[in-house]
Amino acid sequence: MNASLMAKTAYANPEQPLRTARDAEYEVFARITRRLRAAAGCAASDYPGLVGAVHDNRTLWARLNADVSLPENGLPQDLRSRIAYLAEFTRRHSQKVLHGTATADVLIEINTSVMRGLRREGEAK
């Protein structure tokens, strides 16, 4: 794509609101959760799909865990601790899902709760 076309595309809709970091986080959670939900629904017939979705979810939580462990992270310590706990829980539960001894339901529930929290915080602006 040439620079002129990229510029036109980037500025084609100036009325569209800018996305905040919170909006971007929500979109990542939503995309991964949709994929996880779809893969969980057909785990028996598409195990590689389940593995990919669980991997993406674990990667998301590992990145969140790394972020909240940074000293310069601005979140309150209590919230940082809860995110770290959920990241560890997600890592362990994901192993159970991949071994077939648990379902992905609780992972989907956790992500959905985080998405609700991101929306509530966004509404408080």
TrEMBL record:
The biological processes this protein is annotated with in GO are:
bacterial-type flagellum organization
**Per its UniProt record, what Pfam families does this chain match?**
FlaF
InterPro entries linked: FlaF (IPR010845)
Enumerate the UniProt keywords alphabetically: Cell projection, Cilium, Flagellum
NCBIfam families per record: PRK12794.1
Query: Which protein are we looking at?
Result: Flagellar biosynthesis regulator FlhF
